[in-house]
Amino acid sequence: MVIYYHGFHKYFRYHLKMEKYPHLNEAVAKILRERRAQLGMSKRKLSEEAMIERAYILGLEQGKWNVSLNVLFFLCDALKIDAVDFMRQVKKELEKFGSG
Predict the structure, then answer these.
(1) If 0-12 CB within 10 Å is exposed, 13-18 middle and 19+ buried, where does residue 42 land?
(2) Residue of 15, 77, 22 lying closest to 50 (CA atoms)
(3) What is the largest CA-CA distance in the chain?
(4) Which of the residues in the chain have pLDDT under 70?
C-alpha cells in the first residue's frame, strides 16, 4: 500500500524551489544572535538550555546550516520567544533582502 507518492523526480523540488529564499539562513542567524544578545546569554548557555550542541548553534549563527523545525522550537523555548514571533522577525529580515 502506497501512503504517499510523488510523481516527480526526487530532486525536482530542490532544483526549482530551494533558491526562492537564498538569504533564509542569514536571516535566521541574525535574529538568533540578536535574541541571544538581548538575553545576555552565551552560546554555551543556549546550548545547555536548548539541549543542542554548541557547534551546531555556532553554525546556525554563522548562517552555515539550515534549522529544522524541531531545533527551532527548542531554541525558541530556550530564548523565551514564541516560535511564531521568531519567524515573524525572520520574515521581516528576509524582506530587507527582497526575498520575503
Answers:
(1) exposed
(2) 77
(3) 52
(4) 1-19, 99-100
